[in-house]
Input
Amino acid sequence: MAKWIDVMPAKALSAGAYALIVLDEVELILVNINGSFYAVENVCSHDGGDLIEGEIDGDEITCPRHGARFCLRTGEALCAPAFEDIDSYITRVVDGKIQVFDEPQ
Ligand code: FES
Output
């Protein structure tokens, strides 16, 4: 059954910071964008690149392998060579802890 999972204290991830987390054996990028937390899968939909190795600019991440860009808020694929969105996960803060729902939106 899907559930909320505590991942880290909210104060551990300041604005602009990001971290790799593992949720039920799935790697996710957890990022703080202007005080709001977002989580997307760490696998590029083009050819499986590790997105966490890519450059983050605002709410976009660029895959280090062939340059596809994704929205960190929604997982939307923003340019070729990726045409499929990546999974995104909803987050919330409870008692100072970031929680991620363990099923993609
Ligand atoms: S694996 Fe990410 S753009 Fe090709």
Summary: The longest strand covers residues 26-33. The mean pLDDT is 97. The chain is about 0% helix and 45% strand.
